[in-house]
Q: What sequence folds into this?
């Protein structure tokens, strides 16, 4: 543990491994930055090819930061002083086998309980590694275990990679659905066969202003119109934002919706805050009722339709309320505001960088596609069905992710129970490895700086011979220092 490194010429190129480059996964490639030895020979941990590095400081230890040094320039590396450098004894421990053991949940969980130090600077003590029990199969079996882990964990990682790509695919799917819905292509066939007597809402016939002046981001079928958002809402209600200063949070009172309460197009009713009736009464203009459409106007452009349960509630300053006029379906208006083209138009009107804000004057000019009344209902029906399919896939994806996330720790646990590969009676027994360890002399400690103290000469110290229990060797292979069901020994 933490072996001494032989000095090199200052110009010798070595591999530098800062904490950020040390991998978290067993399969992560060992990355490094080439540096001349002169830059890293002092103030860093040193290691060589075949050594296993383990981060000892929080939260890096808990995050599983550990790696096997390989491919280093001139076979030598340097890195953070927050590493333990573990050098497996040649012919006794396979480096990949040791790395896999350091990645097990048992090792990480117990190590986390043994940490010492102040909050934010806790470290795993050296004694934890020195005292930790390591299951020790024959060397050839260690290699077979490591080879099998390489194969199985690569398959698990490939599965994880595919699962990680699904949320982005679902997001693109939903955006494509909204795009098709708001340009008329989603109902093109329906329009040809069912829309002969469908009419636009009556208010379209009035003087609503020219939506093209606001830079309409979409083209629509000839039977549709694009209107300004201010003309898609009830004139007497307008487009308004809510309570500026709701006061302290109350256990009871009038609920109000903040932008953080809108998640995936739905209002999280259980998380709503309350304001007093007095404050709510002063903001009657922004009270909400079933069918109102809410739009986030600070930072995120979230959209949701108000459900029955929130009748008489209110909204915060970060949310605008749009009350659809007769002939405009609330869900259709919400889907229009969520569509990529309208969202992009709204983002282009943002003001401010750190906290983008959308003024109501811009919201009122937003171009909104309006389809005939029956077609609006058909679009909502089809979008709802497709979104329900996406939600179902999302739920199955979440369940699959939970299952696959368990495979790596389960596979590692199985490996160190001796269940991952078959044992070969022809392998050199682990007891021979232990005898080799017990006969090796302890490396002398590094001499302290300053004036040397005079000490009496002492005999070289060796490790005491380990007592091996033959009954503890399954199939004559594993070595154990304990009951027959504990296939482990302190190495």
A:
């Amino acid at each position: 543990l933490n072996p001494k490194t032989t000095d090199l010429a200052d110009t010798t190129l070595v591999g530098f491994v800062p904490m950020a480059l040390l991998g978290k996964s067993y399969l992560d490639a060992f990355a490094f930055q080439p540096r001349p030895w002169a830059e890293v020979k002092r103030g860093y941990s040193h290691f060589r090819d075949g050594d296993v590095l383990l981060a000892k400081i929080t939260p890096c230890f808990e995050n599983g930061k550990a790696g096997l040094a390989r491919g280093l320039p001139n076979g030598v590396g340097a890195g953070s002083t927050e590493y333990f450098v573990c050098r497996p004894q040649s012919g006794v421990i396979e480096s990949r086998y040791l790395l896999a053991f350091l990645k097990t949940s048992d090792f990480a969980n117990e190590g986390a309980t043994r940490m010492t130090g102040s909050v934010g600077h806790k470290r795993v003590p050296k004694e934890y590694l020195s005292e930790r029990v390591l299951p020790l199969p024959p060397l050839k079996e260690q290699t077979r275990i490591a080879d099998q882990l390489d194969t199985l964990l690569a398959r698990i990682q490939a599965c994880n990679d595919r699962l990680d790509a699904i949320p982005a695919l679902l997001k693109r799917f939903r955006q494509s659905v909204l795009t098709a819905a708001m340009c008329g292509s989603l109902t093109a066939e329906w329009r040809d066969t069912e829309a002969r007597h469908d009419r636009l809402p009556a208010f379209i016939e009035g003087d609503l202003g020219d939506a093209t002046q606001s830079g309409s981001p979409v083209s629509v079928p000839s039977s549709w119109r694009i209107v300004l958002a201010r003309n898609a809402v009830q004139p007497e209600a307008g487009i308004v934002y809510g309570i500026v200063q709701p006061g302290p949070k109350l256990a009871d009172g009038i609920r109000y919706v903040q932008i953080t309460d809108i998640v995936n197009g739905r209002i999280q009713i259980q998380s709503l805050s309350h304001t007093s009736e007095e404050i709510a009464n002063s903001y009657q203009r922004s009270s909400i009722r079933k069918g109102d459409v809410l739009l986030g106007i600070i930072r995120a452009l979230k959209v949701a339709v108000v459900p029955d349960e929130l009748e008489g509630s209110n909204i915060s300053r970060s949310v605008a309320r749009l009350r659809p006029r007769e002939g405009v379906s609330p869900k259709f208006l919400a889907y229009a505001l969520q569509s990529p083209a309208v969202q992009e138009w709204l983002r282009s009107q943002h003001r401010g960088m750190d906290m983008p804000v959308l003024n109501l004057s811009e919201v009122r000019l937003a171009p909104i596609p309006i389809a005939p009344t029956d077609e609006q209902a058909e679009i909502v029906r089809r979008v709802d069905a497709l979104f329900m399919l996406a939600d179902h896939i999302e739920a199955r994806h979440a369940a699959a992710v939970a299952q696959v996330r368990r495979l790596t720790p389960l596979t590692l646990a199985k490996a160190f129970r001796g269940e991952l590969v078959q044992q070969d009676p022809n392998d050199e027994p682990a007891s021979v490895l232990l005898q080799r360890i017990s006969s090796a002399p302890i490396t002398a400690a590094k001499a302290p700086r300053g004036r040397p103290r005079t000490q009496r000469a002492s005999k070289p110290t060796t490790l005491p011979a380990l007592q091996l229990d033959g009954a503890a060797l399954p199939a004559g292979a594993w070595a154990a220092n304990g009951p027959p069901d504990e296939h482990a020994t302190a190495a």
The two ends are 12 Å apart (CA to CA). The first strand starts at residue 13 and ends at 17. DSSP finds twelve helices and 18 strands in the chain. The chain has four domains: 1-132, 133-196+381-422, 200-371, 434-440+464-491.
